[in-house]
Amino acid sequence: MKIPLSFWEDSFFNEIFDLAVVGAGFVGLSAALEYKRSLPQAKVIILEKGIVGQGASTKNAGFSCFGSVGELEDDALTNPIDSVVETVKRRWEGLGILRANIPDTEMDYIETGGWEVFQDKDEYEAAALSIEKWNNLLRPIIGKGVFQVQAIDKMNFQPMSIYNPYEGQLNPMKAIQYLYRKAISEGIIILKGIDVDTWSKKNDVFEVLDRDSHTFCSKKILVATNGFTGRLLSDLDVKPARNQVLVTKPIHELQIRGNYHYKKGYIYFRHVDNRLLLGGARFISDKENTSSYGQTSEIQEYLSNLLKERILIDQSYDIDQWWSGILGVGNAKGPIVKEIERGLFVAVRLGGMGVAIGMEVGQKSAQQILNSK
Asked: Which domains does the chain possess?
């Protein structure tokens, strides 16, 4: 039941905004901030479905990375190598934008390095043989060689791994909360619990309607809903993909430190204080092509066995928590940032790299909006 509005609330809802952003993740918040800083007098509102955040920005695993050798080799099978290098460049520069806008201390950023681990010897040797190629390709971007062979122990994988010293970890919830505070301090209105349903346009003004029949009017709209975009714009090449994640209870004298990638990046694990976080494996089940949160016994069993048999060998632990996050993926890699119709923009399909490219995509979309007629 729709609760009747007060005079004050009704006046607020009848206001015409210059920009309404749907989605308050890395992309939406960054876009709103960039737009507001360029037009300080503009009226900007962000409409967020979740109480905290509905999308992957606060539900991801907190990796600061730009691609392992195995992932890059896999991408190069279906994409021109120049395109793969450009993708890494965008991620690397995007991480620079992230850290330039959010102080490391505000998001618990730590440069830990990252390791790509292998179960199969042939897979490891094939990846190791391509290290020199990728170092040469990425040197103009990073400034020096990125990947190197390094021994690992304490886990049941191949004895050698591929190490990348430029990876890090962060607390995505703290990063988003910092952007919330910045947005509010600059006069951007953020409303949570607003589940946008549809919109219509009349006299160059959009009327946005949520599922509780609240109406918001705005001259321009940016849709930044990533994996949930299909419900609002079904004809875009962006599909939901669910990743399930677990974290253990604190483990006494946990030896594992840093980021780890496995199965071409589709599985990942890292330490969180003295806990072990493990997630991914959506490739083993078609059930993960969904925008519904939750867990499945198939993925839980797979990740639980991997944790026991290959990661925390002969170590006592208890799983403390499971959760899931919804990614936005598509047939092509790379984000969709464009104007759908006059005044209606999208910035979606982050492909699981929202931490790396979310702020860059948001800023780019804001500039596109500012430059539109």
From this structure: 7-58+173-238+332-370 (3.50.50.60), 239-329 (3.30.9.10)
